[in-house]
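pinned: reference chain
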Amino acid sequence: MTRVFIFFLILFNLAVGQEVLIVDDNNNPIPNVFLFNESKSISALSNISGEVNISRFNLNELIYIQHPIYESSPIRKIEVLKTKKINVTETIYEIPEIFLDEAKNTDNIKNNSEQKIFISRKEINKLNTENIADLLEKKGGISVQKSQFGGGSPNIRGFEANKILLVVDGVRLNNAIYRSGHVQNIISIDESVLEDVAVTFGPSSVLHGSDALGGSIHMKTKNLYFKNSPEFRTNFFTRYASGYNGFSSHYSLNYQSKKFSIFSGITSRDYGDVKMGKNRFHGYENWGRIYYYEQNGDIVENNNMDNQPNTGYQQLDWINKMMFKLNDYWRITSNTQYSTTSNVPRFDKLNDVEYNHTNSTFDPKYLFWYYGPQNRFFSSINLQGFKENKLFDRSEFILSYQQVEESRNQQKASEESMTIREEKVDIISLNSNFKKGNLSYGSETILNWVDSKSNIEEYSLGATRYPNGGSILFSSAFYLNYLKRFNKKLQLEAGVRSTLSILEASFTDSLSRDLLAIEGTTIKSKNHILSGNIKLIYYPNNLWKISSVTSKGFHSPNIDDMGKLFVKGDNLTIPNTNLKPEYAYSQELSITKEIKYPINILTYGTAFYTHIENAIIKDTMLVNLNAGNPDAPPFWTNQIPYEVGSKYTFANQNIGSAVIYGLTLGFEANVLKNYKLYSAFPNPFNPSTKIQYSLPIRGKVDLGIFDLQGRLVNNLVSSIQDPGLKTVEWNGKDDLGNSISSGVYFYKIVSNNYVDSKKVIYIK
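pinned: its structure tokens
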């Protein structure tokens, strides 16, 4: 009996002797600090006095620390026992860089009114694509036209190019020369530095206006944070692809402190020639084969049909973001981005043939055909305010400058000179966004300058692609959006946008004037457009959602639509000074059903109907060849002299109407093999937000809201729950029902050995 007593006494002393204290930098005890080993098979929690017993841990085992506010590097138990203390460092994150439309960028299907696709940073890493065009295609739900490297044109609901709105960091990328055909501009955004991508289907955007007939793609680069304890991190990766012998490398650095944060990254890509697969099951044996290619200024035959010569190119992307805390209410962010490429070959053009009358053969038409370096420069200043007043709770001002340069270089095999057409677009924009409760409003002003040049070797003037006298596209808009939650089951959102668009362009060279038979050689256009949407969400219960979106979108003609001069085969595209905006009237209906247990399945279906008015279609256009001679009678024709021979004249015109409709069915399944705490939505929020978590097994669940000092604000859940996907709503109040102050809070879940926490932002 004495031996048993002594044995238990020894065990007691050992246990008591392994009580340690969790303290901060000021030696204050820290409660609710979660300790666990690498496998998470052993865990412990510090009490209200900051004390915790670590006797269950092995002597040489690493102990990991987790807390919403504090952090520490893993430390071995044997080292902890020497001091009987574990020191943790406060790591307070302030509100990250958030654009006022960010709440709409969510992956939660149940809370969206319109059809959306959301790609998080985690998914971007997992998909591991070469560029953002490939990323969108791999995600699914979006088709991408990509006939070569250096290209990639997303298609949403039958629309692409200048009918799809591209937005990066709150600024629209679409400019005055975004064409109606396939565009490559999206690949100038480096997917390696993106925080997330949100794709909205349909013309429901009032925040950004024109060009969103098919939908919009919002790309957001890496968030910046402030942190009380300075932190420096770097990241590097390299990738190799054998299919085209391509290399890509990325390096970035990130620094955070109390009043300053910086993120800088550079990505280099080198695409080699594409290698064709030997097994061709598509039924087109010769599809994708290159018969001729240019080598040292000569056209030679391709003796290796499994290789596509002259398909590769190089690309370099760079970004630098810096955020400064001016005071407790204001902060400013600078954002600079640059993308450039080498010459991008149109290898397919070398397979175009034309009849050789001398030899009675079909010979390659072109000796050279390539895009010159495609350059994109982007710079913005973002000023964000958080001081509440009678007009707004949040404010945001974005001043940006962009410059886009591209060129087309071609030389026919039958000619000795090369034609070079160069375009440069300068864009200045100013966005102002405000939020007051559920009301959002703001303005957008954009000015585009287009400089179009052409030369035929030795700088002899040729016909330019766009008016060579210069072009200006100006737009000014104001938007208003309001969200009304009637109750937990019914939500209404409505928005309206007023846009003024002015376009002016002129031709100064005699070649264009004679060719187009235009008297005055000036293009002028002025349009005022009113657009908007109404969104309705109804929740019959926690498992069903029914939503409806009625919207009107528009595309206001740009320089490419109205002033392009373009030759293809026997067809000549000419300007049309009478072009008007086209409109899209869309109705969308979505139904979502959730099955929770034993496997969580989210099923959804979306049907849409879009009616296009004043549809812009390229068609035959008659030209008055006597327009420059008032004394001569009109002579209307669709065939005019051009170079050697003649060309048929075409132009963009408002021709009738069109209808596009479709149905999307899908499901998402979660097997619930693991615990998971999801991001709250909306976030930031007012007046309430929803928090979801999944449980693989039955067990006790504690879910609470904590402030930045680690104090419990509201204990949302404290009960035993069955496995499945759970949802809890927080209304921005504490345990006593009092409204909390605006700011950053943490929600933390503890169940069995699982502990996790995330940030949520409350804005009044």
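why pinned: Residues 2-90 form a domain with the Immunoglobulin-like fold (CATH 2.60.40.1120). The chain is about 5% helix and 55% strand.
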